[in-house]
Amino acid sequence: MGTVILLDGGYFVGRLQKHWSPKGAMRRAHNSYKKQKINWFQRQYKFQKAFNSDMGYIEVLMSRMRVNPKYDKSCSLIVCFDGTLGRRLRGELYEGYKANRNYNAEENASTHEGRDIRDLLEAAGLEPNSLRPRWTASYDENKEADDLIAELCLAELLKGNKVVILSGDTDLFQMLRYPDVRLNNFRKEITADDIEERWGIKAEHLADWKALSGDSSDNIPGVHGIGEKKAATLLIQHGSLENIPSEEFRTYSANNTKTLSAKLKKVRVENKWSISKCKKEFGSAWASIE
User: 10 Å Cβ neighbour count for 138?
Assistant: First the structure.
């Protein structure tokens, strides 16, 4: 039985943003190259030096957790990169998914096409599939990095391996429901107890909790009238999203009944729903208010 480390490739996106900032290492190297103060090979060397520093930090984290493939042959690392079309799957369900991260305000998640971070690594003279000895990579153009990490995590657990996740994505905190999974958010190791202390829920309730309270980092709204504390209370009381009585969701907020009536009618007309369909799907309150 070995240990598999799953590294969120989004880590390099954040590091690139820093390196290409006005005072970043890559920006300064590129400016020196443009001014012919250094040649192309020196520019590439400085680029690789910046990336090597980033990977060195990852090795420090792994050493602190005693799972560094550099020193332990029972360990291996897989870098999981975001697919260029990765947002589209969730975008088909909600167009506003990650709209807070779009440079183009008119771009929708269902048609979003991101940049392949591997191209930038290759441009710096690095091999994305083997950045370090015993480091490999995983990529699917239709999946985001956290999708790959979750899938690989379960696959490795079924093989009898232990898993260490390196990611700052709180969506992945739910994987701490499994006893052989550890997680580090690049600052410290997160435990199931940390989740319970921070949000008042267990790791296995995290997905339901986010569905109720929303996720501002991904621009996903929650259920109207339910905040973080109420969502935690409901899950503690009922155990899962499916077990929460429908009465808990029948809260209405509007300046007056006419405003709410107009909003309901607009939603129904835009979706081409009949009154009977609304009564069947959402209860008789819809028809009464409209």
Answer: 18
